[in-house]
């Protein structure tokens, strides 16, 4: 498996809109076991989102990335992102809900 | 929902053992929607684990924490942890696999 933990900052006041765009049910993620979008608890950082992902493999994730770049289906979401924090890349070994 | 993203460091060389302890199927997590244990990809940090969690509520998580403290069921896991990095507390809004 292949995992990513990413801290995103939306343009001021646009976090909720960005969250909904990332969760657009029209965006399919084949090979994705888990994809969670979260706000900072208590809105300590009011424009931040945390995205945690588990994919079947890096290849599945990379194929999806290439696909969305080509289709432009996430263009509206990408336009709402002010900064991408450093992504942590992981190798999930197991757990609940996978 | 209530989420946690935690960076743990095991005592040197004990990471794999710690990962297995955290995934012990005898440890039940009522109200836990997602619990993922991951290594650093490419073992850049060879003793590190990332634990990402989504619970039904903070109350469900806190009840579980109190329960494991009382039962001692995770004592062996806790003994393998050298340091706890800062935990990020989140409010998950949705996603795949919840």
TrEMBL record, chains A, B:
It holds the Pfam family ABM. Keywords: Monooxygenase, Oxidoreductase. GO terms for molecular function: monooxygenase activity. InterPro entries: ABM_dom, Dimeric_a/b-barrel. Transmembrane segments: none annotated. Residues 1-65 form the ABM domain. This is Antibiotic biosynthesis monooxygenase.
């Amino acid at each position: 498996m292949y995992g990513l933990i990413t801290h995103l900052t939306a343009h001021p006041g646009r976090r909720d809109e960005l969250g909904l765009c990332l969760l657009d049910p029209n965006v399919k993620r084949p090979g994705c076991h888990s994809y969670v979008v979260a706000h900072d608890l208590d809105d300590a950082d009011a424009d931040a989102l945390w995205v945690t992902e588990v994919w079947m493999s890096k290849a599945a994730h990379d194929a999806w990335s290439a696909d969305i770049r080509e289709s432009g289906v996430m263009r509206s979401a990408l336009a709402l992102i002010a900064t991408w924090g450093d992504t942590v890349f992981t190798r999930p070994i197991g757990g609940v809900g996978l």
